[in-house]
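Bug #2210: token dump truncated for 3-methyl-2-oxobutanoate hydroxymethyltransferase?
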Amino acid sequence: PKKMSTTRMKAMKAKGEPISMMTAYDYPSAKLAEEAGVDVILVGDSLGNVVAGHESTLPVTLDDMIYHTKAVTRAVTVPLVVSDMPFMTYHGSIDATLAGVGRLMREGLAKAVKLEGGAEIAPTVEAIVKAGVPVMGHIGLTPQSVYQIGGYKVQGKNSASARKLLDDAKALEQAGAFAVVLELVTDELSQQITKELAIPTIGIGAGPHCDGQVLVFHDLLQYASPVVPKKFVKTYANIGDAIRNGIAQYVKEVKSRSFPAQEHTFHADLEIAGHLYG
Ligand code: KIV
Ligand code: NA
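Reproduced locally. Full output below:
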């Protein structure tokens, strides 16, 4: 398969070909994602929740993102790897922002970065794009602002907030973003935004009319995701149960001394055994 690129994603939108995106945070999950045909891998700062066990994405650092992005980019060749800029790493000076983006690209080997926010971060998006780095936007429910928003609530339900989100999406496109994630917004709004933008929309909890969909690895595979079940998630496997059952069997066999068996056991050469015990 051909390598995924930001230009190919725009072409997919033009052709009406859906874009599949999923998060991955380490080498094995990224490798499996590539083998399964995922178009875009997001090293999401949701790793703060699903990997590190925090209650939000706020504690995630740029160093965390670089570490996980390195592991993911070592594993894949075809999918486009997009990496999240974490909380408060793109709200100071443009110089500081570009330094962080530079580290994610140079050390993590990401191919693009994702930033949360709309019109208010458009100048920042423009500066990053001018520096040659593709930017994915992210509007709607933006988890880095969860304490300002006041919870994980559906966005754009009334006409004023829908209007604002449409303007935000357009501002991001204008600033040079190559795609935009729509998180927890109504079907009506995501349909409107998808129609009015030339760049692809990638939905999560945003209905079926986006140009692509994204889900969190741990959610779609039921990998002990600490968050309560969400209406917008469909689970396609239950690897949490598979892992728990496997580990429980291992523990049982250690306790009953049925593991290790002879086939897992090494023996000395006869002469050495003779020397040791003879
Ligand atoms: O961090 C993440 O997983 C995300 C997706 C939910 C879009 O930002
Ligand atoms: Na994120």
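Output looks complete on our side. The chain has two domains: 6-237, 242-277. Marking as cannot-reproduce; reopen if the truncation happens again.
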